[in-house]
Every structure is written in structure tokens, then in C-alpha cells.
Amino acid sequence: MVRASAVGWTPVSRRPLPILCDERPCRSVTDRRITVSVSGRRFQISARLLQPHPNTLLGSDEKEYFYDEPSGEYVFARDPQLFRLIVVYYQTGRLHYPPHQCVDAFDAELEFFGIESDVVADCCYELYRDRRHELTERLVDHRTLDGQRQTPVDTTLRARMWRGFECPRTSTVATVLYYVTGFFIAVSVIANVAETIPCGDVDRTCGEHFSTELFCVDTACVLLFTVEYTLRLYAAPARCRYALSVMSAVDLAAILPYYVALCPPACKSHCVWGSTARTSAVRW
Fold first, then answer.
1. How far is CA 125 from CA 54, 82, 95, 157, in A?
2. Plot region of 8 (φ>0 → left; ψ -120 to 50 → alpha; else → beta)
3. Would you say 73 and 130 are in contact if contact means Cβ atoms under 8 Å apart?
4. 3-state SS assignment for residue 221
5. C-beta of residue 145 within 8 angstroms of C-beta of residue 174
6. Which is nearest to 225 in space by CA: 193, 191, 248?
């Protein structure tokens, strides 16, 4: 009535306004706020926000198991930094994934509070999916390595060499040989490309201008490939089967042209250098 009289309105009713009660007693049960203590850090959440999520821990009666009567709080020994995101989920209905957090710890918090991972917001879902995919692949690799370590294997030199070729991460020597071989294959491919580039004179290529240097590079690459093929053939459990395999044929196609070119004196070795590098790339 006071507000209406201030703007010149005539109130219809002559009854006085009802007396407003105190805010706390008049608040409904759904508007009450509960206090959640997460590892000593307190959060307050409206019960009205928890009701639309009865399948979650805080939205169901299961949270009463964590109620502490002396303090009047729900006590959880969880990560308070991640629980802050869970509070935002109850407020907005969407869950955000922090890039700096471990995805396994994030999933553990979601599982504990009964929140499905499909509620992750669109702005964070792609990053969250990639992190989970990387974690899954890493766990599969670790389980594979653990299974290989627990499985009884032959301790002979041939068995250790073959295991190193097939799984380079089983030993330091195998890992070094794996990366050295990859480096020489890359060098062979780069040199093959550089051979066809015009260098100096327009009518001469770098392969003709630096024939000696490219021949030395080709020799180093072929020697390494020869050593690797010889060691693989020696360490193979079934040598005849490996010699007739496709991988063995590709290795020989990358190595033999160099030695064949050395046989006739009139044939220059760098004439077949390009095919060697190309087959080396396929081999890699």
C-alpha cells in the first residue's frame, strides 16, 4: 500500500499488509542449505539443487552415512579441488574437466559421487575424451609389458635378441637400435630427395655434384641395414619362415641393389642409390 500510494494509486483493499515472518523459519525444507566438508574445506549447497539428481550420492539418502551430528556437516575425505567442479555441476547441470588434473583422479571422483561422465560440457568433452583414450592406451601397454615380464621366457641370447627386435622397449640396447635405425632411414630418404634437386649448374643435380658424399651416406645406411637384417635372421625362432616372409623380402630389396651395383666395375653405385632409399622408406 505504501508503494502504491507513492505513485498515486488508490489501494483496493483497506486491510493492512500481513506481517512478514522471519526469513529462516519461513524457508521451506527444499530451500535449506547443507554444509559439506571435503578434507577440511567447507561447501554449502542448496537442497533444492540436489533433488533433480536422485541417482547421485548427494542427491540421494546415501549421503546420510557421511553425516556428522556434532558438526552438522557431511564429511568426505575427497579432493576439494575436484569437488568444487561437482558443486558447479549441481548449480548448472554441466560438468567441466580441468586440463591440469589427472583424468584418472577425475573419473574416480565422478564414480564416488555417482555422476556419469556424459554430463561433461561440450567445451571440455573433446579434451576429456582424448585424455581418457591416452590413459587407456598407456594402461594396455603397461599390462602387455607386465605380462611379458611375468611370462617365463627363454634366456638364451637368440631369444633375448628376437624379443628386443619385436618389442624395443624391453631393453635399453633394443630401444637405442630401434631409434638409430629409424634415424638412418630418415637420412636415407632425405638424401634421396636431395639427389634430384638441381645443384650448382642447371644441367647437374646434387646427386651428380656430390656423388662421393652421397655414396658415403648410402654405404653407411646399407651397412646398418645389413647388420640389422643379419641379426634378425640369426635371432629369428624359425629362420626359414622369416627368410620367406614379406618383411625379409623388403629388407633384401633395400640392401641387395647396393651390393649388386658394386659387382660390375663399369656401373656406378650411385645409380641405384635412389631405389635403395625408396625401399628403405617402405621398410620403415
1. 24, 16, 9, 49
2. left
3. no
4. helix
5. no
6. 248
Q: What is the DSSP letter of 45?
A: E
At residue 273, what is the residue type?
W
* Residues 88 and 194 placed together within one structural domain of the fold: no
Task: Look up the domain containing 77 and give its range.
Answer: 24-130
Q: How far is CA 112 from the centre of its chain?
A: 24
5-17: per-residue pLDDT in tens? 444 544 554 555 5
Shared domain for 88 and 172, answered yes or no, is: no
Grid cell, residue 78, equals 575427497
Span 101-143, pLDDT tens digits: 888 889 899 999 999 888 888 888 888 888 888 878 777 766 6
109 within a domain of the structure (yes/no): yes
Q: Span 68-82, mean pLDDT?
A: 91
Do 126 and 43 share a structural domain? Answer: yes
143 part of a folded domain: no
Question: Pairing mode, if any, of strands 33-38 and 73-76?
Answer: parallel
Is 212 within the bounds of a domain?
Answer: yes
Q: Is residue 178 domain-shared with residue 268, that is, in the same domain?
A: yes
Q: Count CB atoms within 10 A of the CB of residue 239.
A: 14
